[in-house]
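Re: [ENG-882] Designed sequences occasionally contain unexpected residues at chain ends

Forwarding the minimal case from QA. Structure tokens:
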């Protein structure tokens, strides 16, 4: 099973990915998590990405494409993977298409998790309050920036994957279990 979870920050991509890795026995590949690990480890890539991430902008396509290409070659991705937070631009989607052609594999579905902007602000504020180690990009000002970046650079992927016949849309405003059920139904469809 090869899936992409697409949706604005706070829509529940990470939460759903964690449930789906259990259900399908395949790894989650989160470019955001990999970048945050690189920042924590103070690698050159992490140092270069930190400032961009803290202000809510996108890290360069070259950096994230490199991360994904390397990660997809790992043994645990052979049976499948769940991409969470990648691709985020049309150029990344095109690069991914090339990587998958190279590896001789195909995506099964792209799940768009739809969510309302005001609810997203509420959720991310809550995530910031609840987590002891708040993410520097989980504050309202940066979130609004990230929502704008999503609208401008990532939302065009909805049409891109609809065109490829891969898009399935679920309502991310439902409770977590219902969203999971909707994703499973959409995949089986
Ligand atoms: P996330 O954890 O997916 O919300 O990502 C957090 C931040 O990491 C984003 O706001 C971007 O700065 C950066 N990032 C993660 N994935 C990507 C990507 N595919 N392209 C560019 N930047 C990314």
């Amino acid at each position: 099973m090869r899936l992409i979870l697409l949706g604005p920050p706070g829509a529940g991509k990470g939460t759903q990915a964690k449930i789906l890795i259990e259900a399908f026995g395949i790894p989650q590949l989160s470019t955001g998590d990999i970048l945050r690990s690189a920042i924590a480890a103070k690698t050159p890539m992490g140092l270069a990405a930190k400032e961009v991430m803290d202000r809510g902008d996108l890290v360069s396509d070259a950096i994230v494409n490199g991360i994904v290409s390397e990660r997809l070659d790992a043994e645990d991705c052979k049976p499948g993977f769940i991409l969470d937070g990648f691709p985020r631009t049309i150029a990344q989607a095109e690069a991914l298409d090339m990587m998958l052609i190279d590896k001789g594999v195909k995506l099964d579905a792209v799940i768009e998790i739809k969510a309302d902007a005001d609810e997203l602000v509420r959720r991310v504020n809550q995530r910031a309050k609840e987590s002891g180690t708040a993410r520097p990009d989980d504050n309202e000002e940066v979130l609004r920036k990230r929502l704008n970046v999503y609208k401008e650079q990532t939302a065009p992927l909805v049409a891109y994957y609809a065109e490829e016949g891969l898009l399935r849309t679920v309502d991310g405003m439902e409770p977590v279990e219902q969203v999971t059920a909707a994703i499973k139904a959409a995949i089986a469809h």
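QA comment: On inspection the terminal residues look reasonable. The chain has a mean pLDDT of 93. Proposing we downgrade this to a documentation issue.
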